[in-house]
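Before the break, one more example. Copy the sequence into your notebook; we will annotate it together after we see the structure.
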Amino acid sequence: MVNIYDILFVEDNPNDEAFIKQVFASSKFSNAKIIVAENLNEVEQYQTEKFDLILVDIALQGNHGLETIKSVRNIFRNEVLIVFTALEDED
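Here is what the structure looks like once it is written out:
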Protein backbone atom coordinates (compact mmCIF):
# COMPACT_ATOMS: atom_id res chain seq x y z
CA MET A 1 0.00 0.00 0.00
CA VAL A 2 1.34 3.42 -0.99
CA ASN A 3 0.89 6.26 1.46
CA ILE A 4 -0.16 9.57 0.01
CA TYR A 5 0.86 12.47 2.21
CA ASP A 6 -1.15 15.67 2.37
CA ILE A 7 1.10 18.66 2.86
CA LEU A 8 0.21 22.31 3.30
CA PHE A 9 3.04 24.54 2.14
CA VAL A 10 2.78 28.13 3.40
CA GLU A 11 5.06 30.04 1.04
CA ASP A 12 4.83 33.26 -0.96
CA ASN A 13 7.98 32.90 -3.08
CA PRO A 14 7.45 30.96 -6.33
CA ASN A 15 11.14 29.99 -6.52
CA ASP A 16 11.08 28.45 -3.04
CA GLU A 17 7.80 26.73 -3.88
CA ALA A 18 9.32 25.18 -7.01
CA PHE A 19 12.42 24.08 -5.10
CA ILE A 20 10.46 22.33 -2.34
CA LYS A 21 8.18 20.64 -4.86
CA GLN A 22 11.27 19.39 -6.72
CA VAL A 23 12.77 18.05 -3.49
CA PHE A 24 9.60 16.11 -2.71
CA ALA A 25 9.26 14.87 -6.30
CA SER A 26 12.74 13.35 -6.19
CA SER A 27 12.28 11.69 -2.80
CA LYS A 28 10.35 8.78 -1.37
CA PHE A 29 7.54 11.31 -0.83
CA SER A 30 7.07 11.89 -4.56
CA ASN A 31 3.40 10.98 -4.28
CA ALA A 32 2.73 13.77 -1.76
CA LYS A 33 -0.18 16.07 -2.47
CA ILE A 34 1.17 19.57 -1.85
CA ILE A 35 -1.24 22.45 -1.44
CA VAL A 36 0.29 25.93 -1.44
CA ALA A 37 -1.08 28.84 0.58
CA GLU A 38 0.64 32.13 -0.18
CA ASN A 39 -0.59 33.97 2.91
CA LEU A 40 -2.42 33.45 6.18
CA ASN A 41 -5.81 34.24 4.63
CA GLU A 42 -5.31 31.33 2.26
CA VAL A 43 -4.23 29.12 5.17
CA GLU A 44 -7.60 29.79 6.82
CA GLN A 45 -9.39 28.43 3.73
CA TYR A 46 -7.95 24.98 4.54
CA GLN A 47 -8.77 24.95 8.26
CA THR A 48 -11.21 22.05 7.89
CA GLU A 49 -8.64 19.90 6.06
CA LYS A 50 -6.33 17.37 7.69
CA PHE A 51 -2.65 17.54 6.76
CA ASP A 52 0.17 15.16 7.55
CA LEU A 53 2.66 18.01 7.51
CA ILE A 54 2.65 21.79 7.31
CA LEU A 55 5.73 23.61 6.02
CA VAL A 56 5.77 27.28 6.99
CA ASP A 57 8.01 30.07 5.72
CA ILE A 58 8.72 32.18 8.77
CA ALA A 59 9.19 35.28 6.61
CA LEU A 60 5.87 35.62 4.78
CA GLN A 61 5.16 38.99 3.20
CA GLY A 62 3.15 41.03 5.70
CA ASN A 63 3.86 38.62 8.57
CA HIS A 64 7.09 37.72 10.24
CA GLY A 65 8.61 35.42 12.76
CA LEU A 66 6.84 34.01 15.74
CA GLU A 67 3.54 35.69 14.83
CA THR A 68 3.40 33.67 11.61
CA ILE A 69 3.94 30.44 13.51
CA LYS A 70 1.37 31.35 16.15
CA SER A 71 -1.21 32.17 13.50
CA VAL A 72 -0.74 28.85 11.71
CA ARG A 73 -0.69 26.93 15.01
CA ASN A 74 -3.98 28.55 16.05
CA ILE A 75 -5.60 27.12 12.92
CA PHE A 76 -3.85 23.73 12.94
CA ARG A 77 -3.38 22.70 16.56
CA ASN A 78 -2.36 19.07 16.07
CA GLU A 79 -0.49 18.92 12.78
CA VAL A 80 3.28 18.73 12.55
CA LEU A 81 4.80 22.11 11.63
CA ILE A 82 8.21 22.55 10.09
CA VAL A 83 9.33 26.16 10.01
CA PHE A 84 11.99 27.42 7.62
CA THR A 85 13.24 30.49 5.88
CA ALA A 86 15.34 31.30 2.84
CA LEU A 87 16.60 34.52 4.42
CA GLU A 88 20.33 34.95 4.38
CA ASP A 89 22.38 35.86 7.41
CA GLU A 90 23.03 39.54 7.72
CA ASP A 91 26.40 40.09 9.36
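The beta strands are 6-10, 33-37, 53-57, 81-84. The chain has a mean pLDDT of 89. Try to locate both features in your own notes.
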